[in-house]
Amino acid sequence: MLFGSDTKMARSLAAQGVSATVPVAPDQTTARQLLDRRPRVLARHLDLEQPRSATRRARTFVQAACADWQLDEIRDDLCDDLCGDATIVACELVDNAVLHAGPGYRLTLRYDAFGLTIAVRDRRPDRLPQALPDGPGGPSHLSGLFLVAALSREWGVMPGQDEKTVWALLPAADSSTTYARAIRTAIRDAVRAVLANGGNTAAAAAAVRQITARLTEQHGAAAVQDLVDALARELANANSDVDE
C-alpha cells in the first residue's frame, strides 16, 4: 500500500501500472480502508537457475501463490481446480524451458479479471515451441505443450530480441469469462469507432467515450482501466508481430 503522494506522483504511478498491483491512497486514513481490498492485479515471479530443482520449486511457488491469493477456493464448470491446473501448466512450461532453452528463466504468475496467466521467460528466442500437430498421436497424448493447450483457454509465445516468453491463460470462473468478453468487445468497438470516424477526431473521441461509459455502467470504473491495460497488451503484441 502506498499513500501520501501528490497528484503528479499518483498520475505517474498509474501511468507506469504500479497502482494496478499496489493500491495508492491519498492519505493514511484512506489507505487503512483499502487494506482489506484485493488489488485489481496480483503478480509475482520466481527466477530459476538450477534445472534439477526447477520443477519442484515451480510447483511449490504456484501452490503458495494460489493459497495466498485464495485461488484454491475457486471451482466451477470451466475450471474444476484452478490451482491444480495452474500447477500442472507451470511445471510443463518450466520443463519445456529446461529441455529446450537451457538455464536462466523466470516463472511469472499474474491474476486479474481475465483469469490466471502463467508465463515462463527464457533466453533462447531462437528456439520456439513447435505447432501442435493434429490427428492421431497428437493432442490425445496429453503431455508437454499438448497438456498446456488442453488446460488453458489460450496459450502462445511472445518473442523478443534476446528472449522469449511462453504463456498460458487459465480462466478463473464464468464471471471472469463474461467480463473478459466484455472487455474484448469494448476494444473491438473502440477500434472500429476510431477507424470509422477517421482516426483521432472529435467524433471518434465521442464514440469511444460512449463505449467506455457503457462499460463503466455495466462493470464499474475499474473496467475502464482493465480496458486500457488490455488494449495496451493488444498493441504491444501487434507491434512485436510487425517487428518480426
SSE layout:
Blueprint: E1 2-3, H1 7-15, H2 18-21, E2 24-25, H3 28-34, E3 42-48, H4 51-68, H5 82-100, E4 105-112, E5 115-122, H6 145-151, E6 154-159, E7 164-170, H7 174-196, H8 202-219, H9 222-243
Parallel strand pairs: 1-2
Antiparallel strand pairs: 3-4, 4-5, 5-7, 6-7
Helix pairs in contact: 4-5, 5-6, 7-8, 7-9, 8-9
Total helical segments: 9
CATH architecture of the largest domain: 2-Layer Sandwich
**CATH homologous superfamily descriptor of the largest domain:** Histidine kinase-like ATPase, C-terminal domain
How much of the sequence lies in strands comes to 15-25%
Strand order of the largest sheet: 3-4-5-7-6
Uncertain regions spanning at least 5 consecutive residues: 75-80, 131-142
If you compute it from the alpha carbons, what radius of gyration comes out, rounded to the nearest whole angstrom? 20 Å
Count structural domains.
3
Order of helices and strands: EHHEHEHHEEHEEHHH
The average pLDDT value, as a whole number, equals 77
Main pleated sheet: 5 strands, antiparallel
The N- to C-terminal Cα distance equals 39 Å
CATH topology of the largest domain: Heat Shock Protein 90
In CATH, what is the class of the largest domain?
Answer: Alpha Beta
Specify the helix fraction band.
40-55%
Class inferred from helices and paired strands = alpha+beta
Total number of strands = 7
Question: Which outline best applies?
Answer: globular
